[in-house]
Give the backbone structure.
Amino acid sequence: MLTLNGRELWIGYALVIGSALAIVAPFLWILMTSFKFPIAISTGALWFSPTGFNYADVLFGARSDFPRNVANSLVVGAVSTILVLVIGTLSAYSLARLRWARWVGRLFLGWTMLFNTVPVLTIVGPWYLFFQQLGLYNTLAGLIVAHIIINLPMTVWLMMTFFRDIPVELEEAARVDGCTPAQAFFKVILPLAVPGLIAAGILAFVFSWNEFAVALNLTSRMTATVPVGIAQFAQQYEIQNGQMAAASIISTIPALLLMFFGQRFVVQGLTMGAVK
Amino acid sequence: MGVNRQSATPALGQGGNGVRAEAKRKKQSDRLFRYATLMPAVIALVIFTVYPMLNLLQMSVSTITFAHGGAVWQFTPLANLAKLRDDSVFLATLRNTLVFVVVSVAIEMTLGFALAVAVSALGRFKGLIRSVMILPILVPPVAIGSMWKLMYNYNFGIFNQMLAWFGLGPVGWLSDPNLALVSVIIVDIWHWTPFVFLILFAGVEGLPREVIEAARVDGANNWQIVRKIILPLMGPAIAVAFIFRSILAFKVFDQIFLLTSGGPGTATEVVSLLLYRVFFAQNDMGYGALLSLVVIAMIVAFLLGARRMVAGRA
Amino acid sequence: MKIWTSVHHAVTALVLTVGLMAPALAADSVTNVGKQVPINILINASPWYGGFEKVTELYQKQTGNKVSLDVTPYNGMLEKARNAVRGDKSPYDILNIDTAWTIEFYKGGFLKPLTQIQPGYAMPKQVFTCGGSYYWNAQKQWRTPVGGELMAVPPNCNTQVLVYRKDLFKAAKLAPPKTFDEVLDDCKKLQKPGLYGYVTRGERGNGIWYDFLPFLYAYGGSEVADPENGDFTSTLNSPKALAALDKFIEIEKTCAPANRGAIGQADVIQLMATGNVAMAQVVIAAWPYFENPTKSVVVGKIAAVENPSVAGGKPGVPMGNWHFAVPKNIPEANQKAALAFMKWFLTKDAQMAYAKAGGIPVRSDVMAELSKEPKYAWMAAYKQSLEDAVQPIGYAEGAAVEDVMGLRLNQALIGQKSPAAALNTAAAEIEAIFKKNGRKTGHLPPLPQ
């Protein structure tokens, strides 16, 4: 690697430390804000006596829907992640190993690529009409379906990269030993792809937890998720700054957990496509 | 591995019709498995992406109103096109989106690359930096929007407070039409430079050290090594990060929805916001569909162009 | 009056949460609405919500009928109401609909006319009809009591008033302004670092559109010629409208905070409540917020007068009222229960309790009686405003016209367009909207730019 000396070394340190601080500082400021009373926020007081008022109001307030939002997000995130892993892993394996004609793979990947590239709002309009017909509008099931579809392309690509890394010889050996293709897949290949499943699952859950545009338009009070809940703290007559800050902090909990415990998988998932 | 190779051998030893029937059965089960694995995804995609996309075509030539119990479709092929022709907001939206994508992606790529090289060269804090950098990527964009909305606040936001310490400001970060788009771009740079960094850092760490060492022995300075060796070798990773970021920047919605909702005037109106406004605020499903198709067409053009670019590099 | 005292006690009992008293009171309440099925009301989060919540509690105690509330931020209200009536069965028995949205709901046939639930039902005479927006004349496609069916009742007649700091005005020996020129003069005299002279909404969309209307109307302008009688000529680029816009921008640039182009309802209210502005033109619905000591530092320091006008002219007062309506797609029993609640809600007793708990009443007798008390002096201005108020936008293209004006006015305010150019553009776009729908339309000669 490069060897930095003198001025270059200082610039390097400044860049790296400065960036890290720039990333962390907004979180700290917002954390501080979330412990302020509204009057301390709107006067911009630097010294204040911390209060749990905003958190109490967000989590236990009589008019707050936030606990429900969290529950909805957890349900939608968990169910959609499991289902997208099942559907996505099977099809990824199928495309990677089961000798489909070239055009099948190309069509599948090309279409998912296109779908993943267009702004999701182009399709939310038709979904709105279609989901109403199907009775899926304003249901958690509807949102789960939407999140499966949104996360499917990413899951398929990621799992395909993992399957391609597994030597073909392993499968062939299993087949020679009398395994059916299904057995070869479930007993031999799948266990080897577990790190991939974890990486894809983590990303699918996070994307579902974070997803806003679809949830905003296809849910209402009883089915709203965390991002929709956060957005609602900016109301017409009164922007609840303290509650907005507290809800934002709560919404980052999955991200924080992953940062400490799942970093390896996240980095792997995010960089996989790029490096390969 | 729990597979016993010996137990399978006797089956191969049998001859005649048994083998052929066995092979046929095997072939059938192979095919069944092949279809069973791919079909769920295909069916889901056809129902929930292909069909709605086709629906867009029909919607785009219709005026859709709602009467009791459902949508009423009227065939009005030219009405939406006429609206598109006269839509000055759409043009402003395209301009804003383009500026947003080009400026934020350019800065993110530059910063992300510099950071990747710097972290790699320093050789310290690698784990720490990576942990910190993951955070903005994983946090809900809506939370990021609300955080920055508070920081940009005209009356009590941290930026105007800091300016006030020096007797400056206040600055209308989100209300000044000349500044609002810049403010929104700053948030995007904060949000996504870490992503570029992660991808490029993986690339830098994977570079062949011998080549760089050899160059140094030959007397190349750091700047020359970066320009002549690292940049070219990182080409594919840079291209991928660039394409990913361009696509994501083009789709931006959540943060801007929270920060400015497209205002003031049309200063921060981007494509996704316009679609949202037309579909759900103006409730004009037909025109929204037409705009969607225009946007999709532009993306297809971009994808084809990007593919040519990548192919050209390779 | 015996009934009134008992209701009054009931409110006191509620406030003190002395649950024991209530069942006894329920027994001798006169407004007998009978046993009804539980109902669910879609209601917006607003400063007067607290008053409404209290009054629904009172209703439940008095009648034993169940009411649940879905409290929704303003931004989600239209979506929810739309989805409720477009689905098979509405989850709500009463929808609260903003005035600009009523045409869509009336015209689409989504609502049950109240006279079809109970033949011959009419609102009490003391209830303001808020510019007639509760009636729909299907033949004329216009909201008017003349030949119109009763579709909804008012939870409030939200008009705009000029709220000012009476302490500051008194100290400076100023009388509350009657014209926009006086607003400008007073604001110049009052403003100083930390105190803005005047504020109103300048944010793109509904905000600036609605808050510009008092100027437009006072200067004799309009956005469309005579929609009630079918003349949809686009008139926003008239010299009168330009004079109104010039004055609006002059006042905003002289008196309002520099982020004027992004100021929304919450900002206006907060500036007033934190004591940072001397005058605010704001809807009466915001009043309870200013008088809430946990949120406001100006409790007891503010007063309201009717909107300003041009010297010698009438003030321009746009209505921004809400509508309690019953969806068609609910069972008959629910429709009956919904109407029962509305009838109870419009009684003098209920309105009195509503007003005292922070609601905005709709009965003239309640306003007249309460405005004598210093605490409710603002109701005089509210009542006066109601008498002068007009309904803005009474046609199906309302939302699209509002969207156009909301953008172009905002661009003029922030300097993206000149006032004349903004009005010319908006007028042309409004004409196109009417043309698309096959209306009889036309345009004025463009303003010189």
Summary: The first strand of chain B starts at residue 62 and ends at 67. Chain B has a mean pLDDT of 86. Chain B touches chain A through 113 residues (CB under 8 Å). The radius of gyration of chain B is 27 Å.
